[in-house]
Amino acid sequence: MKNKYYPNLASPITINGVTFKNRIFGAPMSNPELDPDCHMRREELAFHENRARGGMASVAIGLGIVDPDGRTHTKEVKLYDVMSLPSLKEVANVMHRHNCNAVMELAHGGKYAGARSHGDNTIPKVYGPNDEINPEGLQVTAMTEEDIYRIAGYFADAAMLCKEAGFDMILLHGGHGWLLAQFMSPTMNHRTDRWGGSLENRMRFPLLVIEKVREAVGPHFPIEYRMSGAELIEGGYGIEEGIEMAKMLDGKVDILHVSAGVHEDPAAFVLTHPSMFVEHGCNVYLAAEIKKHVKTPVATLGGLNDPDMMEEIIASGKADIVELARQSICDPYFAEKAFSGNKDDITRCCRCFTCFYNYLTNRTFCCAFNPVVGHELESFSAPPATTPQKVVVVGGGPGGMEAALTAAGRGHSVTLYEKNSRLGGALLSEQYIPFKQDMYNFVKVMERRLAKAGVRVCLNTALTPEQAEAEKADVVIVAVGAEPIVPPIPGIGGANVVGLDALHQDPPALGQKVVILGGGLVGSESAIYLDGLGKDVTVVEMKDDWASDAYFMHKNAMKIYVEKSRIQIKTGTTAKEVTEKGLLCQTSEGEELLEADTILLAAGMKPDRGKVDDFYNTAPRVFQVGDCIKAGRVVDAVTAGYYRAIDI
Questions:
Q1: Could you tell me what percentage of the chain is helix, strand and coil, using 3-state DSSP and rounding each to the nearest 5?
Q2: Torsional sign, CA 165, 170, 175, 181
Q3: What is the pLDDT of residue 116?
Q4: Interatomic CA distance for residues 129 and 180, integer angstroms
Q5: Which residue in 41, 72, 157, 545 has its CB near the most CB atoms, within 10 A?
Q6: How far is 203 from 246, CA to CA, in rounded Å?
Q7: 152 exposed, middle or buried (CB, 10 Å; 0-12, 13-18, 19+)?
Q8: What residues form DSSP beta bridges with 391?
Q9: Residue 622: what are its φ and ψ, rounded to 5°?
Q10: Phi and psi at residue 52, in whole multiples of 5°?
């Protein structure tokens, strides 16, 4: 019986004897940290189990390394160590509890291995197609014939270990610049023997690995092969050669998983992991082209977060399978919601790179919109209240909405007061910005959840401390946000100066020539938006760098856009005076008048502590949430809102 909402996306598919219950697969995600022996901890098991619980047909664990010399960092499962078997069995078991197939990715860092400390002082042996010095300054040794066959054997041994552990499929990582891709690549493989040169020679090592793996696991065990349909780098292969590679893999593996790019190239990185500045599904065309030439089922991915788009991909024959990574962090129950007719409750990934940043720096799972992710072991839902209480939330931004929703979900009686006519706070600025639509969608999703949870929402109500005290609430949560920083310069109150609320309408209330005062994250993103509207945009920033408060992956994506745009960014520049003609600035070379029709104020935000402090003693317990404590990111506000509601 077909699903009435997504008949194609929800339809089962059988791969080499293994049935997957639908066409949404969990793309491989490695773990932010492992235990000292590089085995998966309970925290990782709980995270991946929650992905399985959410309705996907499979979940892939990323970066199982087949060779101790193939490690690139400390977050990789040792598939060359039999002592990994117990934790691998646990992974397979937790997937199977939810009728979800378990998949393990097999990889080798090749010339990028050994780049990060493994906790000892030994100098690692780094192998690759050629003798060279890698970006970390380590000597790379060209693999001999013996090395090639030895490492192919390691892949086979690792695949056998995964099969023994109860995994349902293995995924060979032949994309993104890892070892197999290094041999496939004309830019990375400069060998002159039978393992390099022609396409046939460059494919010889990946095909040998597949052959050895197939011998190890037998004919009736699915093998998925991840490849970049195009390298998307200067001198790299394009889709034409990607098609020829796929033809050579056709019939030798059971799924062709078509990704894109080379991970270590900054410009390609934001296409391999699409940023918010590129369209959703930007890499689907690669899979669609390859599918025309092969019989093997084809999987696609690339910033997908819309079940309607996924249904069209499957229905139109562009691919047989879609794969999700970041979207399954943002909303692990994506598939379940789509197939049960609740797509309007899906929290869509906004591709802000919060997850990547925290993975690499704080070594945690994290999401701007999902405060529970990474803490699944503590609880899969907020614990019910022991004694229901009356809760008043002052402020309807993301922190206030999350606090109200979580408190109501625990059984408290909640009223939320918002001074404006709409909920959303600072996120209302995103409504008309094309690359921020997923952030505005979060506001709409939260509005619907608040209504469903029975939260009483009072708009156009600037609740005073006296009114809050008169409510006789047990708890008051103050989430009044922050206010713009207004530089004390002459003319700043002029009619040609506007705040970010000018972006709350379409088209924005701005002239043709716009000078943005403030080159932080918000000002820089506003510049990109206005450039897309055809405005003449100049950004003025006092610091020596722009968007210095952005995550470095997001900054890289913005930099790529700005380099191709007409945006002018003036760092090390101080605003002196607003005039009728524009903004008078001080630069290292003297004064400069930047002509402008409109000055857009984006100099940052600051909490109004006086307003916040007035709410002390308005209830037995008073909490503060979000920007009213310290102006920050959405993730900070949402997380604080969730945990303050847990504290009730």
A1: 35, 20, 45
A2: positive
A3: 53
A4: 9
A5: 72
A6: 10
A7: buried
A8: 414, 475
A9: -130, 125
A10: -65, -40
214-236 residues labelled b (16+ CB within 10 A) or e (exposed) = bebbeeebbbbbbbbbbbbbeeb
Residue 188, C-beta contacts closer than 8 angstroms, at least 6 positions apart:
111, 128, 129, 130, 177, 181, 182
Contact 435, 429 (CB under 8 A): no
State both tokens at 602: 């984006």
| pTM across the whole model | 0.94
- For residue 129, CA distances in Å to 14, 19, 197, 376 come to 36, 37, 11, 41
pLDDT in tens, 164-198: 999 999 999 999 999 999 999 999 999 999 999 99
Please measure the distance between the N-terminal and C-terminal CA atoms of the chain and give it in whole angstroms.
45
Nearest to 322 by CA among 337, 330, 311: 311
The model's pLDDT over 346-405, given as tens digits with 9 standing for 90+, comes to 999 999 999 999 988 888 899 999 999 988 887 656 778 789 999 999 999 999 999 999
Single out the residue of 591, 346, 464 nearest to residue 582, CA to CA.
591
Note the pLDDT of residue 137. Answer: 86
Lowest mean pLDDT among 14-23, 69-78, 254-263, 471-480: 69-78
Phi/psi class of residue 225: alpha, beta or left (left: φ > 0; alpha: ψ in -120 to 50)?
Answer: beta
For residue 81, give Cα distances in angstroms to 38, 90, 163, 179, 571. 10, 16, 14, 20, 51
Count other Cβ atoms within 10 Å, centred on residue 546.
Answer: 25
Per-residue DSSP letters for 227-249? Answer: EES---STT---HHHHHHHHHHH
Count CB atoms within 10 A of the CB of residue 150. Answer: 13
Estimate to the nearest angstrom the gap between the alpha carbon of 206 and the chain centroid.
29
Surface-to-core class of residue 598, CB atoms within 10 Å of its CB (0-12 exposed, 13-18 middle, 19+ buried): buried
CB distance 404 to 410 below 8 Å: no
In the chain, the amino acid numbered 586 is Q
Tokens of 265: 């190239």
DSSP symbol at 262: B
Contact 103, 168 (CB under 8 A): yes
What 3-state DSSP class applies to 125? Answer: coil
